[in-house]
């Protein structure tokens, strides 16, 4: 089983930016957590981070050709206005989960709406870095139930 984890703009700056919102743990910690989770679950996890919308779209499309089993995505600010990322997600048939470290529904009003979530199977918000781990478990469960 192969799961792609895509992180959008500024996610590589967690632990540096707005620690009161995103916490003290840095991006390297997230990558270590995902590496450990992959070992525990006996699956392959590939991570990708980009601050560019086009690169994120290209990576989603590449996931299709690589026959990835699922995608976990934190589109960052693109969540709220990237119809292009939404279209890319909608074009690939596989389980997809949108993750947000903070509870976007408790933040500024513009963050309450996700234009990318409708193209995803589900959404996890406000559970910190652990949200990624829960998303891995959810995708693994979805894929197992399809077989």
Automatic annotation (TrEMBL):
Function noted in UniProt: Catalyzes a trans-dehydration via an enolate intermediate.
Catalytic activity: 3-dehydroquinate = 3-dehydroshikimate + H2O
InterPro entries: DHquinase_II, DHquinase_II_sf
Protein family per UniProt: Belongs to the type-II 3-dehydroquinase family.
Pathway(s) of this molecule: Metabolic intermediate biosynthesis; chorismate biosynthesis; chorismate from D-erythrose 4-phosphate and phosphoenolpyruvate: step 3/7
NCBIfam families with a match to the protein in the record: aroQ, PRK05395.1-2, PRK05395.1-3, PRK05395.1-4
Pfam families: DHquinase_II
Residues flagged as site, Transition state stabilizer: 17
Protein name listed in UniProt: 3-dehydroquinate dehydratase
Keyword flag Transport: no
Lineage: Bacteria, Bacillati, Bacillota, Clostridia, Lachnospirales
Residues involved in substrate binding: 74, 80, 87, 101-102, 111
SUPFAM superfamilies: Type II 3-dehydroquinate dehydratase (SSF52304)
Highest taxon above the source species: Bacteria
Enzyme Commission number(s) of this protein: 4.2.1.10
Catalytic-site annotation from UniProt: 22, 100
CDD domains linked: DHQase_II
Molecular function terms, GO-annotated: 3-dehydroquinate dehydratase activity
GO biological process, one term: amino acid biosynthetic process
PANTHER family (alphabetical): CATABOLIC 3-DEHYDROQUINASE
Swiss-Prot/TrEMBL keywords: Amino-acid biosynthesis, Aromatic amino acid biosynthesis, Lyase
Self-association and partners: Homododecamer.
């Amino acid at each position: 089983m192969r799961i792609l984890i895509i992180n959008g703009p500024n996610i590589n700056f967690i632990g540096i930016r707005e620690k009161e919102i995103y916490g003290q743990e840095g991006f390297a910690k997230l990558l270590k957590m995902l590496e450990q989770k992959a070992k525990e679950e006996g699956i392959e996890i590939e991570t990708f981070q980009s601050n560019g919308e086009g690169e994120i779209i290209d990576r989603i499309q590449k996931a299709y050709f690589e026959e990835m089993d699922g995608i976990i995505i934190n589109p960052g600010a693109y969540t709220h206005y990237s119809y292009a990322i939404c279209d890319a997600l909608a074009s690939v048939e596989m389980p997809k989960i949108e993750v947000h470290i903070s509870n976007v529904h408790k933040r500024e009003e513009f963050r309450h709406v996700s234009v990318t979530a409708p193209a995803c199977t589900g959404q996890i918000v406000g559970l910190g870095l652990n949200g990624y781990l829960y998303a891995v478990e959810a995708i693994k469960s979805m894929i197992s139930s399809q077989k």
